[in-house]
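Priority: medium. Attachment 1 of 2:
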């Protein structure tokens, strides 16, 4: 088994700053006096690239957890907007609710692997047409 090369302190500092700091990539490179060519060389290094990819995956997991945590609250607020006195606000809330249906359904296979089943009940165009008809019916009823 080959011994893996550790990342340098400078490489670790650059990664930390890119993922945890408030500077953009070029500003981080400037701060640590890393030339773009050197940075590109780092990106071709298997260890650096693996650490970079792990941090990207962690960032996506964290953002997914935040979105999941507030999904119920966001859904409740959208439902409340369907009672708006503004027909346009109501229509947009309904469209958002319909378009937020799960685009995929995750399930476990018999051998324990996760698969994704694509599932879309209505296209956004179809949902929009349905909502336009419903909004028109609601307007007609109010005018009676």
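Attachment 2 of 2:
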């Amino acid at each position: 088994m080959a011994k893996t090369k550790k990342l340098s302190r400078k490489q670790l500092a650059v990664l930390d700053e890119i993922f945890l700091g408030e500077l953009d990539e070029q500003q981080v490179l400037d701060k640590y006096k890393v030339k773009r060519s050197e940075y590109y060389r780092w990106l071709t290094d298997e260890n650096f690239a693996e650490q970079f990819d792990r941090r990207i995956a962690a960032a996506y997991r964290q953002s997914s957890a935040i979105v999941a945590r507030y999904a119920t609250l966001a859904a409740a607020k959208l439902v409340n907007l369907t009672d708006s006195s503004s027909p346009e606000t109501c229509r947009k809330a309904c469209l958002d609710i319909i378009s937020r249906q799960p685009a995929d359904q995750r399930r476990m296979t018999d051998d324990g692997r996760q698969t994704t089943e694509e599932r879309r009940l209505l296209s956004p165009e179809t949902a929009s047409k349905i909502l336009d008809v419903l909004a028109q019916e609601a307007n007609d009823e109010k005018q009676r």
